[in-house]
Amino acid sequence: MKIAIVTNESPESTKVGEALKQKLIEEAFILTLTNPDVVVTVGGDGTLLNAFHSYVDQLESVRFVGVHTGHLGFYTDWRDYELDELVKSLKEDTSESVSYPLLEIELSYSDSDETKKCLALNEATVKNLDKTMVAEVYIKDELFEMFRGDGLSVSTPTGSTAYSKSLGGAVLHPRVNAIQLNEVASINNRVYRSLGSPMIIAQDEWIRLDLKRGDNYQLHIDHFVMNQENLSSVRLQLSEKRIQFASYRHTHFWRRVNDAFIGELRRKD
Ligand code: NAP
């Protein structure tokens, strides 16, 4: 089995990554960043996001495993003190995996007929850099509303615990094949009106944002931030591609949510 180890730059993750490397070499695994079967990330959810984009062209052949050097994350099933158990699981690997939905983003520009496509694991967010963003929001090619505000964000189910949650979005179980549209500071008054609530869009539907004001936008795709000149339209839909995680252990999703956001329950009498 060929394994790639991807760590973030913190001294702690580098140390854990080195320890894991030694253990894998002792067990005769092939360590390579080129065409691996399994990518093991050491760091946090952000490290996994980074690795996802590095191997985005190999999603059919690559499975991911996340080791967290802090608390348990949403893309990370292993803690840094569990390396021996992880190596044992890799040795006993049966190629089983669990997969999660991804977001497909298609970008159109006013000065070109060509479109650009990319994938997000957490979300895509569009913001106007200069003025209030004005966008016609289409759902499955039907005009739904005229949005005015700071921006609009569309997230995957696994991204629902990230930026989407800060925007007031619902937390979605990763088995729900849907995407979620969230407003960023919408203007709602007697003149301007948009729904003002998060919307869950079904698997066979898509969202199109036709940008109406200016041509200087900022596009956030997961941890990437890009200035986009002449951006005119953004189409967002659940991708046919999915990210695969090696399913060596199962962490109950709602326990993970509780652990990340609530913590120990204190019963009040
Ligand atoms: P970052 O500082 O690397 O990450 C921000 C935090 O989001 C980190 O604590 C990270 O966890 C956590 N995170 C990432 N994916 C998550 C997920 N699916 N569920 C729950 N928590 C998650 O920020 P960045 O590099 O700019 O952007 C990475 C992601 O962070 C973005 O995709 C966005 O969703 C999120 N973010 C959220 C806000 C916000 O809530 N206001 C602002 C900026 C970015 P780890 O510590 O485990 O890496």
Label the structural class. alpha+beta
CATH homologous superfamily (4th level) name of the largest domain:
Probable inorganic polyphosphate/atp-NAD kinase, domain 2
Q: How would you sum up the global shape?
A: globular
What number is the mean pLDDT? 95
What is the element string, with H for helices and E for strands? EHEEHEEHEEEEEHEEEEEEH
How would a crystallographer describe the biggest sheet? 11 strands, antiparallel
Ligands and ions found: NADP nicotinamide-adenine-dinucleotide phosphate
**Total number of helical segments?**
5
Work out the strand percent: 35-45%
> How many domain regions?
2
- Segments where pLDDT lies below 50 for 5+ residues? none
What Rg, in angstroms, do the CA atoms define? 20 Å
The N- and C-terminal alpha carbons lie at a distance of: 54 Å
**How many distinct beta strands?**
16
List the main descriptive attributes of the protein structure presented here.
5 helices; eleven-stranded antiparallel beta sheet; Tumour Suppressor Smad4; globular; 269 residues; single chain; alpha+beta; Rossmann fold; binds NADP nicotinamide-adenine-dinucleotide phosphate; 2 domains; five-stranded parallel beta sheet
How does this structure look, described?
β14 and β15 form a beta hairpin. This protein is α+β, with helices and mostly antiparallel strands. NADP nicotinamide-adenine-dinucleotide phosphate binds next to α2 and α4.
Structure summarized in a few sentences:
With about 270 residues, the chain is an alpha+beta fold.
